[in-house]
Design goal:
This protein is α+β, with helices and mostly antiparallel strands. 33% of the residues lie in helices and 23% in strands.
């Protein structure tokens, strides 16, 4: 019996070690200088271990400035706001342009800015060309940072939203180069080019964001896509 318990303990330790290493990379706890993965290149759509390489930006301001480089993105670093009562931000930027489109944010984490840039460059713009033969020139959103709890869920209502740490954005519409607006609220349903475009860009967001939810998730998201880079994974 004692030998069996000892064997079980050793097996659990062997399983725990890789899980701990995975969690450290997933949460962005491993500095880039200790990482086996090369720094992220925003122009490469199929980067291997993309989630881990995005997470490496979470706490590294120098790496952030090196990765968020023109011409794919225009941003400026902002001072940290120490997190109190679950609200604040670290290693955040103000965003002006990303992936060929105007997208202005007051504060958003570097990790999110990189994910947004890659999504716009490698998912949104090709989808706009495919469905409209045009480019997206402007992206409208409903906010990034907000000190609040998760909305639209009875189970999660007592938990802080990723918005509370500037690690989320709510996208509500896209403007094409001819001035046409494609709105999540107005154009999600049906089998129109606008609806197909919205479904393509929502589906493609799952590669770059850990949470990508839209109108089919619940009524609270009827008019926008919610994207974030929190610890959980959900694409609905």
């Amino acid at each position: 019996m004692r030998k069996s318990r000892h064997l079980i303990s050793r097996l659990m330790l062997l399983l725990l070690a890789p899980a701990t290493i995975f969690a450290a990379f997933w949460l962005g706890l491993v500095p880039q200088r200790f990482s086996p993965f090369a720094p992220l290149n925003l122009s490469e759509p199929n980067s291997y271990f993309l989630n881990m390489r995005l997470a490496a930006l979470k706490r590294d301001a120098n790496l952030c400035q090196a990765v968020l480089a023109a011409p794919l993105v225009q941003s400026s670093a902002i001072a940290d706001e120490p997190i109190k009562n679950g609200c604040g931000w670290k290693n955040a930027v103000r965003l002006n342009h990303a992936g060929g489109a105007r997208l202005t944010t007051d504060k958003i984490t570097c990790e999110m800015a990189a994910a947004l840039t890659m999504w716009l460059e490698h998912i949104v713009q090709p989808a706009a060309e495919r469905h409209f033969s045009k480019q997206v020139t402007n992206v409208k959103h409903m906010g990034t940072y907000a000190c609040r709890n998760i909305a639209g869920s009875k189970f999660w209502k007592d938990f802080r939203s990723q918005h509370a740490t500037a690690s989320a954005i709510d996208i509500d519409s896209f403007t094409l180069s001819d001035g046409q607006a494609v709105s999540v609220l107005r154009n999600w349903k049906g089998d129109t080019p606008e609806a197909r475009f919205l479904r393509d860009v929502h589906r493609g967001a799952c590669r770059y964001f850990r949470v990508a939810i839209g109108p089919d998730f619940n009524a609270a998201h009827a008019n926008h896509f919610h994207f974030d880079r929190g610890a959980l994974k959900s694409c609905r």
